Prior knowledge:
The chain is built from three helices and eight strands, in the order E-H-E-E-E-H-E-H-E-E-E. By secondary structure, the protein is of the alpha/beta class. The strands form two sheets. Strands 1-4-3-2 form a four-stranded mixed beta sheet, with helices on one face. A four-stranded mixed beta sheet has the order 5-8-7-6. A hairpin with a 4-residue loop joins strand 2 and strand 3.
Amino acid sequence: MKKLNTISLSFLVIRTMNIESTLSFYSALGMEFIEEQHGLYNLVHYACDLGNIVLEIYPYQATLANSENKQRMGAESMLGFNVISLEKTLYNLEKLGIKSKISSKIKNSERRASVTDPDGRIIHLTEISSVD
């Protein structure tokens, strides 16, 4: 029997060197962002409500950056998203010049693809059946 978690993810922040490209990338996945500006540093950033999780895109603060961690910033993390139409999502990303890698392993009739966001993060996309 699977143990139930008593904790769940509710908030995720992505920091980026190029907020426009990253915002375009995640918008092409079908996310709708609103501009926000609040908090300790009062930085303009973008937020998207994904049901039980809020995803925010923040500019990468130069004060935290050095040449080594700038290059590794995105490559150290991966994200996965369920999408209604893999074909439509990949088409939207292609219009931005982003190539995909379709998974050759299809489990339980799931269609999957992997793409890389503007900061080098690997993004796994899984097509799900629409919920009526």
